[in-house]
């Protein structure tokens, strides 16, 4: 259980994935530790995880570490329980419907095309993780929420957001200079900025050619008979940015890293796109070329994204509190304790995956479908009633990124070796990932003024 108060938090932060695996090897799939200011039982293995995920609301209930709960706020989907949770999910599900995704798609494609063009025209190597964070933040603010915040303010908001995310998992000690205090300060600034953006948006509805997630959220809450208060809207938008930004930036970076490491995979992807008439040369920065049905026909692309999410799953696991004592793998899990179900460790030890450490997208092909035996071996988006609400949006974003990378960019690792990976707050390369991008056809690299501004230090 480690030291008083801090428990094994230091070991956990320093050892990365080794923390979980070394203790699992010593104690088995269910063991206790002490992290982020509280005792915790960590659970690995499909059968054990199934029991936790299917036991939501009667055996267990969501309970993120105190820092996460306090910083995200009480009105969020991930912090709510019981009927409130069920109702919130109904209201939020409208923003991830098929029609909603279809309407965001052209905007997502445009933001990605624009970003890749800027990366390709940049004379030096790009820090991919840092730029992917900017890209997903921009996507969340501009496309998902439809905010028209001036570039300069957006840059400032991004910096505050980074401070917020860095401290979402911190010891809940509210002292000057503590991570938790910095997180609280960041939350206050963000809430102020979001309130301003929401008010401006509600006043100005002209010039919009699609309904963004915030429009749909407000509409959906009215349809469900409960108009959202300003505080609920602020917490809701903060949660959406948080959920979309760090996870998707992590997966985008891992995708680029794997395409770099495995040129044959990239070539096979290009072949598939070519066969479907989707591979383009980047000459047309127009929006609207991709549609959902075109993407869903791309089987190999689907396998690549699934494999990235298996081997480089952004989130380690999910947190719960025990509502009634129950048994798991021969151990008693006492009422009132905290439990963390492990996504990464469960996937890394799943017997259904052959050569589990090898990047092999074909394991998800129709012929092999290694994930077909038991759905709790593969859970990058969690499972049960708390399955990720934004998983289709996240996969859509990653697919568009892969299509655009394959179509318009040549890219090379700018360092001698690939970087080390760390896991907190989400999986990412320790020093970013340094990559030099080149457009496939440099004559066609026209940069839009907005993108030029974006690369110069702001978002
Ligand atoms: C690659 C990207 C993503 C990954 C790996 C991911 C992963 C997850 C996981 C594992 C959970 C379940 C946590 C638990 O069991 O407690 C979750 C929940 C959630 N995700 Fe995602 N997510 C991603 C992207 C997104 C996006 C883009 C959004 C929305 C814009 C989103 C919104 C949410 C929300 C609202 C929840 C809470 C659901 C609930 O408690 O009922 N996620 N996500």
Automatic annotation (TrEMBL):
<dbReference type="GO" id="GO:0005789">
    <property type="term" value="C:endoplasmic reticulum membrane"/>
</dbReference>
<dbReference type="GO" id="GO:0010628">
    <property type="term" value="P:positive regulation of gene expression"/>
</dbReference>
<keyword id="KW-0503">Monooxygenase</keyword>
<keyword id="KW-0479">Metal-binding</keyword>
<keyword id="KW-0560">Oxidoreductase</keyword>
<dbReference type="GO" id="GO:0001972">
    <property type="term" value="F:retinoic acid binding"/>
</dbReference>
<dbReference type="InterPro" id="IPR017972">
    <property type="entry name" value="Cyt_P450_CS"/>
</dbReference>
<comment type="similarity">
    <text>Belongs to the cytochrome P450 family.</text>
</comment>
<keyword id="KW-0349">Heme</keyword>
<dbReference type="GO" id="GO:0001709">
    <property type="term" value="P:cell fate determination"/>
</dbReference>
<dbReference type="Pfam" id="PF00067">
    <property type="entry name" value="p450"/>
</dbReference>
<dbReference type="GO" id="GO:0071300">
    <property type="term" value="P:cellular response to retinoic acid"/>
</dbReference>
<dbReference type="GO" id="GO:0030326">
    <property type="term" value="P:embryonic limb morphogenesis"/>
</dbReference>
<dbReference type="GO" id="GO:0016709">
    <property type="term" value="F:oxidoreductase activity, acting on paired donors, with incorporation or reduction of molecular oxygen, NAD(P)H as one donor, and incorporation of one atom of oxygen"/>
</dbReference>
<dbReference type="GO" id="GO:0070268">
    <property type="term" value="P:cornification"/>
</dbReference>
<dbReference type="GO" id="GO:0007140">
    <property type="term" value="P:male meiotic nuclear division"/>
</dbReference>
<dbReference type="GO" id="GO:0006805">
    <property type="term" value="P:xenobiotic metabolic process"/>
</dbReference>
<keyword id="KW-0256">Endoplasmic reticulum</keyword>
<keyword id="KW-0492">Microsome</keyword>
<keyword id="KW-0472">Membrane</keyword>
<dbReference type="GO" id="GO:2001037">
    <property type="term" value="P:positive regulation of tongue muscle cell differentiation"/>
</dbReference>
<dbReference type="GO" id="GO:0020037">
    <property type="term" value="F:heme binding"/>
</dbReference>
<dbReference type="GO" id="GO:0016125">
    <property type="term" value="P:sterol metabolic process"/>
</dbReference>
<dbReference type="InterPro" id="IPR036396">
    <property type="entry name" value="Cyt_P450_sf"/>
</dbReference>
<dbReference type="GO" id="GO:0045580">
    <property type="term" value="P:regulation of T cell differentiation"/>
</dbReference>
<protein>
    <recommendedName>
        <fullName>Cytochrome P450 26B1</fullName>
    </recommendedName>
</protein>
<dbReference type="GO" id="GO:0006954">
    <property type="term" value="P:inflammatory response"/>
</dbReference>
<dbReference type="GO" id="GO:0034653">
    <property type="term" value="P:retinoic acid catabolic process"/>
</dbReference>
<dbReference type="InterPro" id="IPR001128">
    <property type="entry name" value="Cyt_P450"/>
</dbReference>
<dbReference type="GO" id="GO:0061436">
    <property type="term" value="P:establishment of skin barrier"/>
</dbReference>
<dbReference type="GO" id="GO:0008401">
    <property type="term" value="F:retinoic acid 4-hydroxylase activity"/>
</dbReference>
<keyword id="KW-0443">Lipid metabolism</keyword>
<dbReference type="GO" id="GO:0060349">
    <property type="term" value="P:bone morphogenesis"/>
</dbReference>
<dbReference type="GO" id="GO:0005506">
    <property type="term" value="F:iron ion binding"/>
</dbReference>
<dbReference type="GO" id="GO:0001768">
    <property type="term" value="P:establishment of T cell polarity"/>
</dbReference>
<keyword id="KW-0408">Iron</keyword>
<dbReference type="GO" id="GO:0043587">
    <property type="term" value="P:tongue morphogenesis"/>
</dbReference>
<dbReference type="InterPro" id="IPR002403">
    <property type="entry name" value="Cyt_P450_E_grp-IV"/>
</dbReference>
<feature type="binding site" description="axial binding residue">
    <location>
        <position position="388"/>
    </location>
    <ligand>
        <name>heme</name>
    </ligand>
</feature>
<dbReference type="GO" id="GO:0048384">
    <property type="term" value="P:retinoic acid receptor signaling pathway"/>
</dbReference>
<dbReference type="GO" id="GO:0009954">
    <property type="term" value="P:proximal/distal pattern formation"/>
</dbReference>
<dbReference type="GO" id="GO:0007283">
    <property type="term" value="P:spermatogenesis"/>
</dbReference>
């Amino acid at each position: 259980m480690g030291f008083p108060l801090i428990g094994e938090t230091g070991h956990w932060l320093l050892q990365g994935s080794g923390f979980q695996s070394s203790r699992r090897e010593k104690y088995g799939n269910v063991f206790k530790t002490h992290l982020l200011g509280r005792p915790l039982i960590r659970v690995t293995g499909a059968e054990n995880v199934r029991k936790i995920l299917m036991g939501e609301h009667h055996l267990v209930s969501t309970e993120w570490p105190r820092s996460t709960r306090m910083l995200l706020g009480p009105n969020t989907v991930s912090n709510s329980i019981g009927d409130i949770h069920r109702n919130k999910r109904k209201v939020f599900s409208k923003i991830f419907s098929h029609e909603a995704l279809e309407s965001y798609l052209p905007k997502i494609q445009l933001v990605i095309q624009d970003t890749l063009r800027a990366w390709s025209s940049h004379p030096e190597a790009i820090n991919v993780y840092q730029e992917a964070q900017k890209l997903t933040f921009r996507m969340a603010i501009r496309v998902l929420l439809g905010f028209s915040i001036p570039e300069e303010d957006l840059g400032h908001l991004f910096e505050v957001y980074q401070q917020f995310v860095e401290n979402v998992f911190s010891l809940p000690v509210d002292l000057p200079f503590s991570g938790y205090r910095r997180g609280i300060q960041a939350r206050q600034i963000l809430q102020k900025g979001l309130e301003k953006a929401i008010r401006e948006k509600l006043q100005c509805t002209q010039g919009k050619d699609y309904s963004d997630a915030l429009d749909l959220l407000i509409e959906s809450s009215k349809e469900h008979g409960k108009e959202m208060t300003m505080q609920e809207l602020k917490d809701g938008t903060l949660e959406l940015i948080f959920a979309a930004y760090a996870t998707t930036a992590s997966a985008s970076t891992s995708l680029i890293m794997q395409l770099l490491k495995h040129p044959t995979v990239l070539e096979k992807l290009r072949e598939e796109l070519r066969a479907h008439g989707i591979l383009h040369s980047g000459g047309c920065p127009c929006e609207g070329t991709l549609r959902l049905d075109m993407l869903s026909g791309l089987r190999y692309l689907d396998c690549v994204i699934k494999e990235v999410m298996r081997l480089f799953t952004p989130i380690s696991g999910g947190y719960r509190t025990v509502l009634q004592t129950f048994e798991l793998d021969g151990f008693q899990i006492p009422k009132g304790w905290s439990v963390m179900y492990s996504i990464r460790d469960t996937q890394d030890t799943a017997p259904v995956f052959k050569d589990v450490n090898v990047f092999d997208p074909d394991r998800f092909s129709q012929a092999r479908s290694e994930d077909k035996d038991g759905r709790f071996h593969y859970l990058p988006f969690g499972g049960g009633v708390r399955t990720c609400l934004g998983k289709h949006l996240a996969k859509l974003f990653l697919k568009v990124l892969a299509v655009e990378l394959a179509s318009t960019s040549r890219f090379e690792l700018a360092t001698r070796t690939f970087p080390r990976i760390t896991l907190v707050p989400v999986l990412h390369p320790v020093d970013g990932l340094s990559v030099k991008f080149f457009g496939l056809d440099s004559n066609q690299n026209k940069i839009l003024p907005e993108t030029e501004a974006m690369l110069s230090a702001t978002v």
